[in-house]
Amino acid sequence: MTAAAERDATTGNEALNGAEVLLRVLDEQGVEVVFGYPGGAVLPIYDALFKQDRIRHILVRHEQAAVHAAEAYARSTGKVGVVLVTSGPGATNAVTGLVDALMDSIPLVCLTGQVPTKLIGNDAFQEADTTGITRPATKHNYLVRTPGALAQTVREAFEVARSGRPGPVLVDLPKDITVGQAPLTAPAMSRLKRFRHQGGPDAEAIARTVQAMKTAKRPLFYTGGGIINSGPEASELLRRLARKTGFPVTSTLMGLGAFPSPDPQFLGMLGMHGSVEANMATHGCDLLIALGARFDDRVTGRVDAFSPNSFKVHADIDPSQIGKIIRVDVRLEGDVRDTLQALLDAWDDTPAPDLSTWWNQIASWRSVDGFGFTQDMTPSAVIRPQHAIRRLYEMAMETGRDTFVSTEVGQHQMWAAQHFQFAEPNRWLTSGGLGTMGYGLPAAVGAQVAHPDALVIDIAGEASTLMNIQELGTIAQYRLPVKIFILNNQYMGMVRQWQELLHGSRYSQSYSEALPDFVKLAEAFQATGMRATCVGELDDVIRRMLEHDGPVIADICVAENENCYPMIPSGAAHNQMLLGPDQDSAAAGLTEEGMMLV
């Protein structure tokens, strides 16, 4: 395009249709990849995509998978993920992914087709009230009603998605808007102050926090996914603050990687399947500083018994989250990156306090080794799932490659969080708040598209894998070397575990009686299938999987009845952990009320 044409475009003088304007704005926003699936209401946009080569489109096989792929793309890059789906069922199929992104604060823009404006409300073919349906599923949504509003609406959508607490934003595009001419208006001054936090944390609140840090005898940093969302600088600042203070650090499921898992100051994940030392330290600390975490019920256990004797500080970019679940003593509102910098500046050259007594207590809790297990190394022995993940981690690290891990949801997800260690942020991709089975496979697609030279592994269960198994077609089409590592116990493992604990081992509909042959299934989708049925076969399968330069499904047959420990039963206090199958669940505080929370 000539310079004159570009000048005309900024004033709306170039003859563009709405679809072309949309793509110009996406390019302006730095979009490089769109995950989507075509349909009648978005054909003008797909036609415009065909005519350009700046934005790459990844054709998924289901709209839910498009959103999960875009989530992982966003999570692993720090960019806004973009989704393009058609009207009606295309939009409704995306809703699960949108709620998943909302719960985990993932920045997305979802573009949905809509019937022409004059047909809205007439029950037209493939019409749905998309903005009405997705209002509780998104951070914000829009219906574009006029061509002149198109460019600025899309720009606002990106600003809303990435500002403040990130989240998914939907833009509903009637077909007449994308077919007809539309002006490429110049960017207007932002009017979205309500979506952005103004300024840094309150200076007095920082001073109170630092004073508490200087006098605490048993301090703890409790970190969450907000640190990941804030960007790599926030993770670096957290590490510097931990080094300066000598404080121990624990993390939620979503925050793994913000602080290096192998570091001796890291206590591991806390919560329902967290480490003994993390949960006991959270219960026993006298100062709890929550950074970018929201006191999820899977972390707190029984709320009235959570960290009962601590002075609590909560830092969050979303003021509505502070004090929402747990009463706190100090509120630090703002981007956690700015909060961490302010704490570092205020701490300055203060020498690290003597916390030897506290660390000795933590060491005694650590000695329990709640993640411990015994693997029979006889070659014919049954593979324990924890051992499979430990070996996968060790052998993946030996490759020296940058490694991204996605998971499905269930026991394998918790074992992965416990036994696969992360030294850097943005490498751990999992569904936390919504707990969406079927997340991991399309998430691996999104991560591999974003990082084509990286090692991308989906640690999966056989039941979750089948939720979005059609994405093997996407993997085949784009020759993505994704590794799918299935811990196959033939059960919906976490469901079976809860049925054992709560329902007298009545395994109602949790056994999978008609599983596919995953090796043959891999071959049907132009991938390589492998299987390990015993310990003696495991390392060879992992090695061949990691060395193979294409997609692999590794079917790892593991012990069917293995349970995930430690475990805080729902409704119990977070220091009342089940450490193994022989522990009396009643002694750990399991109640009828807790059964309601599963």
UniProtKB/TrEMBL annotation:
<dbReference type="Pfam" id="PF02775">
    <property type="entry name" value="TPP_enzyme_C"/>
</dbReference>
<dbReference type="InterPro" id="IPR012000">
    <property type="entry name" value="Thiamin_PyroP_enz_cen_dom"/>
</dbReference>
<keyword id="KW-0100">Branched-chain amino acid biosynthesis</keyword>
<dbReference type="InterPro" id="IPR039368">
    <property type="entry name" value="AHAS_TPP"/>
</dbReference>
<keyword id="KW-0028">Amino-acid biosynthesis</keyword>
<comment type="similarity">
    <text>Belongs to the TPP enzyme family.</text>
</comment>
<protein>
    <recommendedName>
        <fullName>Acetolactate synthase</fullName>
        <ecNumber>2.2.1.6</ecNumber>
    </recommendedName>
</protein>
<dbReference type="InterPro" id="IPR029061">
    <property type="entry name" value="THDP-binding"/>
</dbReference>
<keyword id="KW-0460">Magnesium</keyword>
<keyword id="KW-0479">Metal-binding</keyword>
<feature type="domain" description="Thiamine pyrophosphate enzyme central">
    <location>
        <begin position="206"/>
        <end position="343"/>
    </location>
</feature>
<feature type="domain" description="Thiamine pyrophosphate enzyme TPP-binding">
    <location>
        <begin position="409"/>
        <end position="555"/>
    </location>
</feature>
<dbReference type="Pfam" id="PF02776">
    <property type="entry name" value="TPP_enzyme_N"/>
</dbReference>
<dbReference type="InterPro" id="IPR012846">
    <property type="entry name" value="Acetolactate_synth_lsu"/>
</dbReference>
<comment type="pathway">
    <text>Amino-acid biosynthesis; L-isoleucine biosynthesis; L-isoleucine from 2-oxobutanoate: step 1/4.</text>
</comment>
<keyword id="KW-0808">Transferase</keyword>
<feature type="domain" description="Thiamine pyrophosphate enzyme N-terminal TPP-binding">
    <location>
        <begin position="17"/>
        <end position="131"/>
    </location>
</feature>
<comment type="pathway">
    <text>Amino-acid biosynthesis; L-valine biosynthesis; L-valine from pyruvate: step 1/4.</text>
</comment>
<dbReference type="InterPro" id="IPR011766">
    <property type="entry name" value="TPP_enzyme_TPP-bd"/>
</dbReference>
<dbReference type="InterPro" id="IPR012001">
    <property type="entry name" value="Thiamin_PyroP_enz_TPP-bd_dom"/>
</dbReference>
<keyword id="KW-0786">Thiamine pyrophosphate</keyword>
<dbReference type="InterPro" id="IPR045229">
    <property type="entry name" value="TPP_enz"/>
</dbReference>
<dbReference type="InterPro" id="IPR029035">
    <property type="entry name" value="DHS-like_NAD/FAD-binding_dom"/>
</dbReference>
<dbReference type="Pfam" id="PF00205">
    <property type="entry name" value="TPP_enzyme_M"/>
</dbReference>
